[in-house]
Amino acid sequence: MDTKQALMHLADARGVTGYESPAWDVVNGLFADLVDEIRRDPLGSAVMWKKGAAKEPPAAIMFAAHLDEIGMIVSKIEDEGFLRIWMMGGVDRRILPSMEVTVHGRRDLPGVIGAIPPHLQDPSKKDKSWKWDELLVDCGMSADKLRELVRVGDVISFDRRAVGLANDRIAGKSMDDRAGIAVMYEAARELQRLAHECDVYFVATVQEEVGYGGSITSTFGVMPDIGIAIDVGHASMPGLPEHQVMKMGAGPAISFGPHVHPHVFQKLKETAEEAALSISLSRAPTRAARTPMRCR
After folding, report:
1. Catalytic: 208?
2. Which pTM value belongs to this model?
């Protein structure tokens, strides 16, 4: 399977933060023939080991991209047959009305997110973002039937399939951060052609959307000498200043800041230059901040 196909397969996999098992199965299938060992750590992250060729590998290098995606959870079942919901990760409420979802109850149920019709809405609220208590999931069922199949605490995922766009681009529900896992997949394929001395670990981490849990625990499980995190950024579009975005097709971005080891940063930059690879530099004054800057 080529990397584009792998990315579309990854993007379609269900894996709401904290409930990543279906996506873990996809990762396991993709990497099974590319690494020497795959294990699932106690928190749920996929740890994939590519053994180094040296008798005593000089270093262990860990690449990490998060497996989980944003989603929602059932918080209440209303007597009228609707589901109250709450976010799992950083969900943008503005995009939710009319969104198709899957409620993962005793069996999967299709649903759609609804809100107060604009005709009946308070005029003073029409230009404001929806509040969570104004959003409901409708599965088309009575409350009694819903209660047979759905419980408070059941997970809800977005029902979207990845699609190919022009210029060999892809849109999907969970590019953050299945695109990072696709990068690791391509790297694992490339390493099959090489005799590398170091041990290499590819880790698909869980629970990033709610606090970096999988990346912390898997790091202690591997104890690498070098760790490189792979994540997404914001692409350029009309209305956004150039210094806050990355230009699509202009190469990857490399972060620098207090949490990035300067020697690792410099080596990545030098390697890109040696390969004549266009890159962006991304300022990261804190671990959560990524402000790209074009590299001339």
Report:
1. yes
2. 0.91
